[in-house]
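Model it.
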Amino acid sequence: MIVWQGPIATDNSGLSPIVMCDPASGTDFVIGITNVTCTAMDGFGNVNSCSFYVCVKDNEDPELESCLTDQIANTDFGQPTAMVIWEYPVATDNSGSSPTVFCDPASGTNFPIGHTLVTCNAFDGYGNNNSCSFNVVVHDNEDPVWVSCPANQTTNTDSGKPTTFIIWQIPIATDNSGVSLTVMCDPASGTDFVIGITNVTCTAVDEFRNVNNCSFYVDVKDVENPILSGMPDNLTKLSGHPNEPIAWIEPNATDNSGIVSLTSSHGTGDMFSLGVTLVTYTAVDPSGNMDTGTFAIEIIVLNMFKKYTVTFSSL
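Modeled.
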């Protein structure tokens, strides 16, 4: 609303002229330039006029009635980005015209993983503007993908050992983020693996702690026989009895596995009868590998009248 004084007019008649302005003082003037014409009229119909303009400028910024809260999204499948679309904030202006609203980056942009600040500006037709901002937060919840994982490994123990040294190529994994992954295997390549089946789990982790596993097994077989040592030589005993206890020093058995079971057909100190008896020792490891050894015990019985001799063939 614009209010002004005057204008003032005089007349030769001595009477005050009637003065009117169009638009009148106290009118609500719109934005822009409005011409005002004031007319003075005396009582005899004589008229004179003057004019001026009223220039109303809009220096008031638009109002943003709503600005978005932070937008949360997950990456598009297989991509390091997410296309995020939102409704533009609503803006009003004292001019009555709808302001133009722009956001940077714009709705529909592919946003990278992480936080991106978006600023929206509202412009009216007179160069006034207002802005608000929010964040687009893109999470990577996608697990890495295995390109290759080692095949199952089957091998034999190293000679004389209960283990074998296994090396494999590190498995390969990729991730939608495009960032290099941390790949670890447990047990690790280059480990000494024991006899039997050991499961190996390989884990790929991206920088956002998404995890994927692959697994295989290492099967270490023991095909190495135990070793018997210290087998007794063949024994011959002259006896005056048909049965005689015989004792000997028992052999030893060793195995690369470290575990061996030693059994025998006869024990030291057993009673042996007339003739030849074969004594057999058997060493067996947990994998069923074995070694055997034998020796012969010959009992010769002597009496006053006759010597009985039993001869055995060589083994």
